[in-house]
Amino acid sequence: MSEEEDAGLHELKSKIRDERGFNAHVYKDKCLRRRFAVRMRARGLESFADYSALLDADPLEYDRLVDTLTINVTKFFRNPETWEVIAHDVIPYLMEGDAPVDVWSAGCASGEEPYSLSILLHEWAEAIGREADLKRVRIIGTDIDRGSLAAAEQAAYPEISFDDTPSELRAKWFSDSSPSYLRTEAKAAVGFRKADLISGDALKDQSLIICRNVIIYLDRSVQEQIFRTFYDSLLPGGILILGRVETLLGPTRGLFKAVSTRERIYQKPV
What are φ and ψ of residue 8, in 5° steps? Predict the structure, then answer.
């Protein structure tokens, strides 16, 4: 990329931050170029300068751009091996005792992740006759994109969302329709709110934080900042689950102990 193109990218990032409050500077340039290119091709433009001018002329394009920048591809039970460890090890650990269990799904997109956890919690409770314990659980999903949060609230999903879902869970917890609706019981303990992880919006006193395939798109310094936020948000003994291609960086490595290095599951020491 030429110096002129680099300058154009920097100016476009600053424009979006100043005019829409979306801090694109914290994202990796490679990721941003790819996602900017999606919208530029859609509008038949080749330069960042021309696209910047389009944003001035067509304010609705800003909404389309932010949607593209914040999109997070997700599915129910993505990376099944991770969810097996959650079902067999993490959930029984979290549900020990009788204390409240607060869960934060950070960067939840359209809700597949927090709902996957809710389903597994119900499966655990039904298997051992502890349905009453589910009243102790509260799952909050946060995301920066209002459209994704609206979709999460609706809990209606296309067939592609179930590529990794075990057939028995698909049949038990979702309607046989298109789109497919999640059963009310699995929605009851799950709520959603708009929050910007990068700006420091955080939940406190969490038993579990799940943030998978979100941090990989951010610059290293921002990743370390978010890991510190997660550490501060967890209760002693709380669990952090990252995506399979993500890992703790810098000083934050020393803050957590590994529960499953392969599945990127970590624990804040007691």
Answer: -65, -40
Same domain, 118 and 49: no
C-alpha 23/C-alpha 40 separation (Å) is 19
Q: Measured between alpha carbons, how far is 216 from 28 in angstroms, rounded to an integer?
A: 9
From residue 203, alpha-carbon distances to 86, 182, 183 in Å are 21, 26, 26
Q: How many C-beta atoms lie closer than 10 Å to residue 225's C-beta?
A: 16
Which of 43, 70, 97 is at the close of a domain? 70
CA distance 27 to 13: 10
Q: Does residue 75 fall inside a structural domain?
A: no
91 alpha carbon, distance to own chain's centre? 19
Separation CA 141–CA 178 (nearest Å): 24
Give pLDDT tens digits for 59-112.
899 888 887 887 667 899 999 999 999 999 999 999 999 999 999 999 999 999
CATH code for the domain in which residue 240 is found: 3.40.50.150
Residues 87 and 203 in one domain: yes
Between CA 269 and CA 231 the distance in angstroms is 10
What is the CATH number for 62? Answer: 1.10.155
Chain centroid to CA 132: 28
With 0-12 / 13-18 / 19 or more C-beta atoms within 10 angstroms meaning exposed / middle / buried, residue 148 is: buried
Residues spanned by the domain of 49? 3-70
Domains contained in the chain, number: 2
pTM of this structure: 0.85
